């Protein structure tokens, strides 16, 4: 019932029908050629990630290789579509929304307007190359972009050195291999941040370097100070950088240094004997008496070791409440697979100074010749009234003011003190030619 009315409307307004049809395919109808809105961008993607190319085409209108193509051909328009091509191999990957190549990692999408995307999932090294977005006009229009696939560095363990042992004075050659794209650069560093003794790039002499570049690290005339962990670091600008740790062991026989070979201590006190040991490989360290009797840790003896470095150890022997029988010689001994060494220490008794009686210094002593001379009190000290009457005195209080010190210097040439004078008073006495004697007490 409504059909005749519809055709009647069309026949009544034929111009309107064609205008609507032209608006549907406006771009082609008005003679606008398809063109690209944005350049196709180059991509750099890490291996294993996804790559997405986006192609934006304007004025494509109804020229699509889809259901609308028949309608376009019906009014005399040439259907135009977007194709994706791998330019270096000339392989057609997709046309419009259909994937042509047999690659499950590829897909195409279209937003029903003017944007087409080519998706490559989990990219591989072989995916790198030139990609083309092509519009099948006459003549053909296209734009290209490059996909670069980069690979993070990876250590080739089967071609890389492991831990190494060399004798002191020998040579060591450490090798580190890595793969990746771009090819990784190898840098050597010491784990402890120390310098590396190696030949520079433009010199035959050994230099102290914080880092050395190259796959091979050559060390000559190796010393014990070069022992430690070395890091081979591979980097190519693609994160993450990787590294391998290699331990360089330098072997030498033990060496013992004794800071104090003669140690004194009072009876019934504790005393500690010390030896510094350098050895590699790790040595067995122990203490003996001079007679050869080995010392064992117990309530009497405490033995400890402090590691200062890979090869340096500080040995300590603490003897508690020493007695007469503990006096004599002691040995610190170090042995490893290369050799042995020993250090000798002698322990002797140190007598404490006996405390002298202080009663005789409670008052000032007067020379026998002027024993009966009248004394006067000058603040905290006694003394004669004139320099002729006395030439020396004993002073119990050394905390003198400047005024007291001047009076004391004018009065006597020799002064005996229990404790030290302050600096100002000492200077004044030196200027006056006064002699003072310090008596120390334990």
Describe what you observe in this structure.
The chain is mostly beta strands and about 450 residues long. The chain is built from six helices and 32 strands. The strands form eight sheets. Strands 11, 14, 17, 19, 20, 22, 24 and 25 form an eight-stranded mixed sheet that branches. α5 runs parallel beside α6.
Given the C-alpha coordinates, what overall shape results? elongated
Beta-strand residue percentage: 35-45%
β-strand number = 32
User: Helix coverage percent of residues?
Assistant: 10-25%
Helix and strand content put the structural class at mainly beta
How many DSSP helices? 6
What is the arithmetic mean of pLDDT?
A: 78
Major sheet details: 8 strands, mixed
Alpha carbon gyration radius = 49 Å
Q: pLDDT under 50 segments (min length 5)? A: 1-30, 63-79, 355-398, 438-442
Distance between the termini: 133 Å
Write the layout of secondary structure elements.
Layout: H1 3-12, H2 14-24, H3 26-29, E1 35-36, E2 43-46, E3 51-58, H4 68-74, E4 82-86, E5 91-95, E6 98-99, E7 106-110, E8 115-120, E9 129-135, E10 141-155, E11 164-167, E12 172-175, E13 178-181, E14 185-190, E15 196-199, E16 206-209, E17 212-213, E18 216-219, E19 228-235, E20 242-257, E21 262-265, E22 271-280, E23 284-289, E24 301-307, E25 312-319, E26 328-335, E27 340-349, E28 375-378, E29 381-384, E30 392-395, H5 402-411, E31 414-417, H6 423-432, E32 435-438
Parallel strand pairs: 2-10, 11-20, 21-27, 30-31, 31-32
Antiparallel strand pairs: 1-3, 3-8, 4-5, 4-9, 5-6, 7-8, 9-10, 10-13, 12-18, 14-17, 14-19, 15-16, 19-20, 20-22, 22-25, 23-26, 24-25, 26-27, 28-29
